[in-house]
Amino acid sequence: MTAVLPPDMHRFKLGSCTITVVRDGASVMDNPWETFGSNQAPDTVRKLLEQNFLPTEKLVNSYAPAIIDTGSDVIVVDTGFGAAGRVRGLGRFREGLKAAGYTPEQVTVVALTHLHGDHIGGLMEEGAPAFPNARYVTGEIEYAFWTDKAREGTPAEGGHRTVLANVVPFAGKMTFLKDGGQIVSGMTAMLAPGHTPGHLVFHLESDGKQLVMTGDTANHYILSLGRPDWEVRFDTDKAQAAKTRRRIFDMIAADRIPFLGFHMPFPAVGFVEKQAEGFRYIPKAYQFEL
Asked: For 100-127, how does the pLDDT look when each residue is reduced to its tens digit (9 = 90+)?
């Protein structure tokens, strides 16, 4: 067989909204302890993986942008890798958008949890806006950090250049949010810093149903949620990121509401239960079908 299968998609209802999650792709990472639990002994990380029936030497990281159709708006939340990732089998969100029945021209809002490359790579296609009729939303603190020339000569320089190329061209059509800012009616932003300085999570409510889109607040369903205090290599401020994980997932667990995490196992939607050391992840089943 030589046919390329369409990207994985998953659609469900939240009140009067239709949400479609698209798997932008997945990558295999070696030595999980170098990324998750980087302040722990490697054998401690291996043991937790083994206890949860996961391989100890490799880890699969997947990426899940989403489409929210409110009936009046078509909102894209994060855009995946875009063309830069396609040489590695990533960057499939645009393809998934079309397979889900939408055209790029129908997208009215692009909301960005933060400005790492796997979230902003799909903003441009062949040098032109990928979503030509959209307005754009991201965090005020986030944008200021990544566009600051102070990033030059630091480990953040690569991200700085990507933001200059992919995000700055949309500055004139962009809304910069503070904590509590509104994206559309029923959808608000909450500041959740640590992974990046201005990282946002989005709270969506429709007809009394709720969903929190947590972005990269937690990047692994066992190693981040089960041990939220463990350091993660990708987090800019590791101590602040741990505090934010606790705060956001304490709220989600207490309110018993679902969340969509960009790097959770596809379709990336589930619940959390608070436990002694962290949180237990429960993937969605048929809760949204009844």
From this structure: 999 999 999 999 999 999 999 999 999 9
Whether residue 242 is predicted with pLDDT greater than 60 in this model: the reply is yes
Q: So where are the chain's domains?
A: 9-283
Which phi-psi region, left, alpha or beta, contains residue 179 (left: φ > 0; alpha: ψ -120 to 50)?
beta
- Report the alpha-carbon distance of residue 171 to residue 61 in Å, rounded: 30
Distance of CA 85 to the CA centre of its chain: 16
The C-alpha atoms of residue 268 and residue 106 are separated, in whole angstroms, by: 24
Instruction: Tell me the C-alpha distance between 24 and 9, whole Å.
Output: 9
Domain 9-283 has CATH 3.60.15.10: yes
3 state SS of 16 = coil
Distance CA 199, CA 113 (A): 6
Neighbours of 190 (CB within 10 A): 20
Tokens of 34: 């170098």
Taking the whole predicted model, whether its pTM rises above 0.90 is answered as: yes
Cα–Cα nearest to 258, from 270, 246, 245:
270
Length of the chain: 290
Taking 80 as the threshold, does the pLDDT of residue 5 lie above it?
A: no
Residue with tokens 């209802």: 13
DSSP conformation class of 36: B
Helix (H) or strand (E) holding 149: none
CB atoms near residue 196 (< 10 Å): 27
| Residue 237 DSSP SS3 | coil
Fill in the DSSP letter of residue 4: P
Map tokens 């030589």 to a residue: 2
CA distance 51 to 61: 19
Q: Percentage of residues in the chain with pLDDT exceeding 90?
A: 97
Amino acid (1-letter code) at residue 175:
T
Across the chain, mean pLDDT equals 96
